[in-house]
Design brief:
The complex is a heterodimer of chains A (about 250) and B (about 325).
Chain A lengths: L1 H15 L2 H32 L9 H25 L2 H8 L2 H6 L4 H33 L4 H28 L3 H17 L9 H10 L3 H7 L5 H28 L1
Helix pairs in contact in A: 1-6, 2-3, 2-6, 3-6, 3-7, 3-8, 4-7, 6-7, 6-11, 7-8, 7-11
Chain B lengths: L1 E10 L2 E11 L4 E5 L6 H8 L7 E6 L2 E2 L4 H6 L1 E4 L11 H11 L4 H14 L15 H13 L5 E5 L7 H14 L4 E6 L2 H7 L2 E6 L2 E6 L1 H9 L2 E8 L5 H6 L4 E10 L2 E8 L6 H10 L3 E8 L3 H9 L8 H4 L4
Parallel strand pairs in B: 3-8, 3-9, 6-7, 7-8
Antiparallel strand pairs in B: 1-2, 1-4, 4-5, 9-10, 11-13, 11-14, 12-13
Helix pairs in contact in B: 3-4, 4-5
Classes of the chains: A mainly alpha (about 250), B alpha/beta (about 325).
């Protein structure tokens, strides 16, 4: 465990001692802030329209927070490849992978260290959004439950992206290739259920099941369904498992 | 301490290391010599557990690198060809990280790092970023990294590459000083390095071991017979004929002539020291004995000899030349 933490610490530290962490978090904050502002204006207008004589108005959870979470998932699509693309590729290119692979560490520890490191960076990114949530809680009265499950969903979905990103990064020593392929795969996982509306019932349910964002939807509604938890945990473990295989294969190939 | 048995490593159709076997005793420094692409790095990578062998096995500090990799790696320090540094860490941060993943106890970590930085003379760059270091410093940080957890076995891939002459001497002394406590394998293609630092040499070429011996024995073995170089001022007399008659001398050849001064190459029977007789023969006739020295085959020549394929036809001695 201490090895995993040491590796994760190294990952986070290296991200923060280069511009990467600041650029990624900064631009995420910018995009999220923009989405927040636009949604807030829109929500205000709707509130005024819906408000009757005895109060009421738009539901802040349904009309504001949920769309925000869904928008966040789109930003992740662009931002997370930037975090994962260097994890393995950079170590391979600079030869530091030789240090890791000849140290008394198991492949599992190395992979978990990298996964954890990327997740911490991602969590730091999500931390920025807490400011906006705090604003909503201080001026409005949203339900906290869908907010908590929403964040949990974001973390899990991000976990899937990170584990797939790690896998792709472990396959190449070129960061650009790694980043581009990761982005394409994320996008595909996102839009994979688009043909669902015009395909047969079996294909439809398969495609919907495969889509990473489809599973996220329930989280934003405040629903914690084991179906989705199992899906996300399976994707994360499968991604990490394949990464382990990829690292091992690389080793045998030399 | 290190046992390599019938090690073979293939990259697809290419066989990089072919049936290599050798052992290294505790406290010994073994030189791993070979032209570029001979399979030195591959062998070292197998020994450090970086990659598994295709066939055969390697036992380091009593642990099979394939069966018990963690135990073997705990006892191995490795300096790869390019020092594995993280450019955005300072030297101290880097060594602290390495200490953690190599399992140096937290309490000893700081003193260990200080000690290693002193030993490798990098304490003056402790707070510089690794990416900004010169090649010489990088190499030495790499060396500090390899020794940090006080491993039984040190595997150094070209430890003096990229250093300036002063640093090379310092590094060699450092490595020599480590022998005894540590078992060391170092690879190089610089020959004097081997004769100066190593007790034993493995010469490898095209993935195969072509010779294993001490530097002195290798030199002697390939010499076959003893050869002397003699420079005589015979004032025009036929010194060659006189020298030929000295007991034990098997061959006399003129190597060079400068007016009256003639240089001879003289072969004698192995084990038969003919220096006194040669000197007496020259001086007794009133000639000037200007120079007499044994001619050894340098390691360079041995190296060329064993790594060049069609040398079997030519006797080793014929290749010996003036040093």
């Amino acid at each position: 465990m201490s090895n995993i933490l040491a590796l994760a610490h190294k990952e986070v530290k290296s991200a923060f001692s280069t511009p990467i962490a600041y650029v990624v978090i900064g631009f995420f904050a910018l995009l999220w802030g923009w989405f927040f502002w636009v949604s807030l204006i829109y929500f205000n207008q709707q509130s005024l329209q819906f408000a009757g004589p005895e109060g009421g108005g738009a539901n802040i959870n349904q009309q504001l927070i949920r769309p925000l979470f869904l928008n966040a998932s789109v930003i992740l699509l662009f931002v997370l490849p930037l975090i994962t693309m260097r994890t393995y590729s950079e170590e391979k290119r600079s030869g530091t992978i030789e240090l890791l692979l000849t140290s008394p560490l198991t492949d599992f520890q190395i992979i978990m260290g990298k996964f954890l490191g990327a997740m911490v960076l991602y969590a730091a990114m999500l931390l920025v959004t807490m400011i906006h949530m705090a604003l909503l809680f201080s001026y409005g009265n949203p339900e906290w439950r869908p907010v908590v499950t929403g964040y949990l969903g974001l973390l899990l979905m991000g976990g899937c992206f990170v584990s797939v990103g790690l896998l792709i990064s472990s396959l190449t020593k070129n960061q650009i290739v790694s980043g581009m392929v990761t982005f394409a795969v994320f996008l595909l996982l996102w839009v994979i259920n688009w043909p669902a509306s015009f395909s047969g019932p079996t294909t439809q349910s398969v495609l919907n099941y495969l889509s990473i964002t489809e599973h996220f939807d329930d989280f934003t509604k405040g629903i914690l369904d084991t179906k989705h938890l199992i899906y996300y945990f399976s994707v994360i473990s499968f991604g990490l498992f394949l990464t382990a295989r990829s690292v091992d294969t690389e080793r045998w190939k030399g | 301490m290190i046992e390599v048995q019938h090690l073979t490593k293939r990259y697809g159709p290419v066989t990089a290391v072919n049936d290599v076997s050798f052992t290294v005793e505790r406290g010994e420094i073994l030189g791993f010599l070979g032209p570029n692409g001979a399979g030195k790095t591959t062998t070292m990578r197998v020994l450090t557990g970086y990659m598994p062998p295709s066939e055969g096995k390697a036992i380091v500090a009593g642990y099979d690198v394939l069966e018990q990799p963690i135990e073997a790696k705990r006892r191995t320090g490795y300096l790869p060809e390019t020092p594995p540094l993280y450019p955005d860490m300072t030297v101290r941060e880097y060594l602290t990280f390495v200490a953690k993943i190599k399992g140096v106890p937290r309490k000893e970590s700081k003193s260990r790092i200080d000690e290693m930085m002193k030993k490798t003379r990098i304490d003056d760059v402790a707070h510089r970023h690794c990416g900004k270091l010169s090649k010489g410093y990088r190499q030495r940080v790499g060396l500090a990294q390899a020794m940090l957890h006080n491993p039984d076995v040190l595997i150094l891939d070209e430890p003096t590459a990229g250093l300036d002459p002063k640093q090379i001497i310092e590094t060699r002394q450092l490595i020599k000083g480590l022998a005894g406590d540590h078992t060391i394998i170092l690879s190089t293609h610089i020959l004097p390095e081997v004769s100066q630092t190593c007790q034993r040499v493995v010469i490898i070429n095209k993935g195969k071991v072509v010779a294993v011996d001490t530097p002195d024995n290798l030199t002697a073995r390939l010499r076959g017979s003893e050869t002397m170089y003699l420079q005589v001022d015979a004032q025009g007399a036929d010194a060659g004929a006189v020298l030929q008659r000295v007991a034990g001398v098997t061959r006399v050849a003129v190597a060079d002539t400068k007016q009256q001064i003639v240089g001879f190459e003289i072969d004698s029977e192995t084990g038969h020291d003919v220096r006194r007789e040669l000197a007496a023969a020259v001086v007794g006739r009133g000639w000037g004995l200007l120079e007499m020295r044994p001619m050894r085959m340098s390691l360079e020549e041995i190296f060329l000899h064993v790594t060049t394929e069609d040398v079997a036809a030519q006797p080793a001695v014929a290749e010996a030349s003036h040093e």
